[in-house]
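In response to a reviewer's request, we include the raw inputs and outputs for one of the modeled complexes. The two entities were modeled together in a single run.
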Amino acid sequence: MSQPVDVRRLLRLEEGLVHSDVYTSPEIFELEMDKLFHEGWVYIGHDSEIPSPGDYVLRPIGRQSVIMNRDSDGKLHLFMNRCRHRANSVCQYDRGNAAEFQCSYHGWTYRNSGELIALPYKDGAYSKDFDMKALPLVAVRMETYRGFIWGNLGSGRENLREHLGPAGLKSIDLFCDASPEGEVILRQGCNKTRIFANWKFQGGDGYHTPVTHQANFAVMRARRNGERRNSLVRGRMEDGWISRDLGNGHYCLDSRRVLGHGVRLPDAPWARTYRATMVKSYGEERADYIIKTGGNPHAILMPNLQLLSPDVRVIRPHAVDEFDVFFYCAFLKGVPDELNEMRLRDTEDRMGPAGSINPDDVDMFERNQFGMQQVVDPWKFMARGIDREAIDDDADTPEPYRMPGTHIGHYSDEVTQRAQLRWWADRISSHDSAK
Amino acid sequence: MTIAALDLREIESFLYREARLADENRYDEWLALWTTDATYWVPANDDDYDPRQHVSIIYDGWDRLQDRIDRLKSGAAWSQEPRSRMRRLISNIEIEPQRAGEDIAVRSNFVLGELRRGLQTAYFAHQLHRLRLCDDGLRMSFKKVLLLNNDEPLHNLSFLV
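The model returned the following C-alpha cells for the whole complex.
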C-alpha cells in the first residue's frame, strides 16, 4: 500500500495552480489505483449488457479483473476473476454465457452463482474439515442505480447514493428518463479509444470547444445551411451552457437550458410518436423538458463514468500516461427504432478513434501530457473563473431534475477541473478507508 | 458489363490506386472514387452485424463521407496535423461471382504501416469492395474494412483507412 501524499505540495487551488506531477508521476498513479480504484465506488457495467441467465462480461476495477454476471436464476453478481486454488483467472472472454466457470489449470469448477461445485481428485486430499462451501468465487460489494452497476473493493462506509450525491443521481435520472420506460439499453457494442495521456483528462472543459473542435465548424455550417441532410446541428455554447460542480468530484457542462441540444428531433411521424409516449409517461411539461435537453446531463462522474447523451463513456486507466475510453451508445427502451438509429449514428459521427471530435481531443490530451514533461515551470494555471464561481439554486430547472446548492461558472470556466481536483486531493490524502 | 469483360488487372489497379490516394492523403481524389450511394463501413467489436443495431468505428454514407473529407482538409483537424504517413500492401485479391446488374464484389487483404508523431503502427485487415463501371471508369459504391484488432482500443484512425 502506498503512503499518503502531501497534496499541498501539488495543488494551490486557491490560486488555480496545479503541479504537473499530478498528471505525470508514476507514484501518484499507484496511489490513485489504491485509493480511487481499489477503494470506493467504481462503475462496472449496465444490467442490460447481461439480459439472460448465464450472461457475463469481464470488466476491470483498476488493475483487478471482475466477472459481472447473471446466474441461472437471473440474479446479478460481481466476482473476482480468480480461482480460490492457485489464483488462475477462471474467465477468459470479454463477454459470453456460462453456467459454470472452470479453472483450466486444475479443473476447479464454480457455478455461475459462485459456489465451488467440483474439484478433481478431492477424496482423501484435504483435511477432514475441508469445506468446499468455504471456497466460492470471491464476491465484490455491488450496488446499482437505474441499471448501472458499481463495485467497491474497499471496506469504506460510504454507500453508492452517498458517493453519487443528489446531483449525480439526478444526472443519471435525466439520462434514463429520455426513455418513456425510464430504461436505457447498452448492448450495441462500443468504440474503444486508447489515449497516451493521464486518465484525469476527462473532458467537461467548455473552454476548449471552439478551438480544439474548429474543424467541425465548417462542416456544421454546411449542415445548418441545409446543404447536407444530417441531424447533428447543435446549440452553440454561448447560448446558455454552464460549468457545474456536482459535488464529490462529479461535474458537468450543463447544457440543460439550451433548447434542442442533444439529438434534435426532426419533423417526422416517429418523432411525434416518441413525444406522445413521453407525454403519456411523464406528463406534458416534464416530457417536453426531457426532450428539450436531449436527456443529456453531460455529466462526468468520478472516477470512471460519463453520461454524454447519447453515449455512456467508461474510463479505463492503465498507467500514468495511458488510458482507454470506451464509448457505448445507449439505446432508449420503448422508443421508435429511428430514434435509436439516430443515436447510433450520432455516437459514431463524433466518438471513437475515427470520429470527428474524439481524435482531436486525444491529440490535445497527448500534447498536454508532452508539455507537462517540460519541468522548467511545473505549474499549470487553472484559475479561470475562480472569482465568479457561485452557488446556484438551479431555479430554471423543473423537478425532479433541479440541483440546488451546486457551484456554477461560465461555460468556459475551470470550475469542472477544480471540482475534480478537490475531490482527488481529499481522497488521495485520506489515511483510512472511511470513503 | 460483366466480369468476363473486365480484366482482373483493371480491378487490381483500382484497388492499388485507391490505396495510394489514401496513403498519400489525397482526399479529393480519393473521394472522387466513390459513387454517391456510398457506404464506407469499418465495423467495431466484430466483423459483421446489423449496423442499425450496433455501433461501428465508421459507417459513412455520402453526406458523412463529404463531412469527413471537409474536416480533414480544414487544416484544423488536429488528429491529422501533422498528418499520418502511410503505405499499404494489398494482396489475396478474390473476385466474387458476379450477378447481372450488380456491382463487382472484390475481397482482398491489406497490411498498412502508419507513422505519426514518432509512433509507427501496423494494421492488418480484410476488405470488401463493391465496384461499378461508370462512364468515367470504375468507382466504388461500398467499402468494408475488417480490422484484425477491431475489438481492441485503437489510438488514432482519423486518416483514410
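As requested, we also summarize the result in words. The two ends of chain A are 16 Å apart (CA to CA). Residues 165-429 of chain A form a domain with the Naphthalene 1,2-dioxygenase Alpha Subunit; Chain A, domain 1 fold (CATH 3.90.380.10).
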